Amino acid sequence: MQKSSYIGLGLLVAVLLVLPWVVPNSYYMDLAIRIGINAIIVIGLNLLIGFAGQISLGHAGFLGIGAYASAVLPTHFGLHPLLAMAAGATATAVIAGLVARPIFKLKGNYLAMATLGLGIIINIALRNEAQWTGGPDGMPVPAMSVFGFELSTDKHWYWVVAAMLAFSVWASLNMIDSPFGRALRALHGSEVASQVVGVNVVRYKVTIFVMSAVFASIMGSITAHYMAFVTPNFADFFHSVELVTMVVVGGMASVFGSIIGAVLLTALPQALATFEGWETVVFGAVLMLCMIFLPKGLVPTLAAKFGKGD
């Protein structure tokens, strides 16, 4: 990793360690947990969109698979929550791997529509299989226990999510600086040039798509257990768009930008609730201004302005 990455990771760990001792109440603790969950999902999505240059408008579908695996398998089949989470991640990897090859033969708008269609199919399946999933009303999720210890309080979940976020950032930063990461950036720059220098374009596209999908699936399981309830809204189109927006606002091809995007787009709607009916308008205006004045996203734009890389 670069020196700036070590500094950024150190600051992140420091903030994560201090945060639970300074938040004033459980509302802000809940908000911090939700931000952490979204940040991990967005980091995985940014590896796909920002570094590899491949769009996905159906990523919430993978989140839904993980969430419902953690709801359906323990409830109907008595599977341990950790095994259910692993089963959901495995199923997600298989589905993503199977659909990735035909999907990534497409480019541009056609690729976006194909990933959108995949997300819609998953969402429809979750709504229609009511005997297993509870249909549009959703279903309760059993409590998560690890080696006999039940995660039952906000602080328990905070430390789990904080540890996963720190690990995700560390792993992503190391991957980006590895030969695999350099191949992804080359792929983003030019697929033809990448092929000329020996990069297996299809294999790298499929691999990063599967990795990003598994990120979403695992965090879908974590979210389901944390909320103790799951609905098909986990996997709807608007959630996918929200995740992509976090990538764009925070900064594409920026790991720390993913965190900033998750912070802003998770916390901002809560902060705008005081506008009573105008929060959507104000939220849209804030996003529009960000795209006009910070077209590369917050972190890359500010880093370029102050002469520092991410």
From TrEMBL:
Molecular function in Gene Ontology: branched-chain amino acid transmembrane transporter activity
Location, primary (coarse class): membrane
Intracellular or extracellular location(s): Cell membrane
Bilayer-crossing regions: 6-23, 35-57, 77-98, 110-126, 157-176, 208-231, 243-268, 280-299
Any one annotated GO CC term: plasma membrane
Membrane topology: Multi-pass membrane protein
Keywords from the named record: Cell membrane, Membrane, Transmembrane, Transmembrane helix
Any matching Pfam family: BPD_transp_2
Designated name of the protein: Amino acid/amide ABC transporter membrane protein 2, HAAT family
Record organism: Giesbergeria anulus
